[in-house]
Amino acid sequence: MPKSMLDTRYSDPSAEAVPWGVVAERLERAGVYWITTVRDSGRPHITPLIGVWLGDAMLFCTGGQEQKARNLAGNPAVALTTGTDALDRGIDVVVEGDAVVLRDEEALRVAAEAWAAKYGETWRFEVRDGAFHHADGGAADVYRVAPRVVFAFGKDPYSQNRYTF
């Protein structure tokens, strides 16, 4: 269980810390995440993707030729965000950590089942050679991000919460 802290400097006086279970559930249920990686030039690269919160880490996949994969080869630091564009309800979540390629085939099979359960048969992957393979012939590496820190931004009332691992 992560250590949590409500930052009262940026929270409504009536706010209470968002329980970690609520944040973890939001990470599990989200359909789309936004990932920020860092280009060789130091500029950020941000793109939407799908992924799964599995156990205690965020997983996502990408082809080796994609910009985010090229960025991660030089700098594994990432931020993954999800939430809602509503101003007065919901929770926005930011996961910060380092993305590490997952090669263990048993762990990849568990991840592949999680993808199919969450997103349907369109996103069913075959696991071989330490990667995901799609029916269309494409291959993707799977990355695991064990959070270093997670932020949750509550909106009713406004709160800023920090969870450290």
TrEMBL record:
Residues 23-132 form the Pyridoxamine 5'-phosphate oxidase N-terminal domain. Keywords: Oxidoreductase. Gene3D superfamilies: Electron Transport, Fmn-binding Protein, Chain A. This is Pyridoxamine 5'-phosphate oxidase family protein.
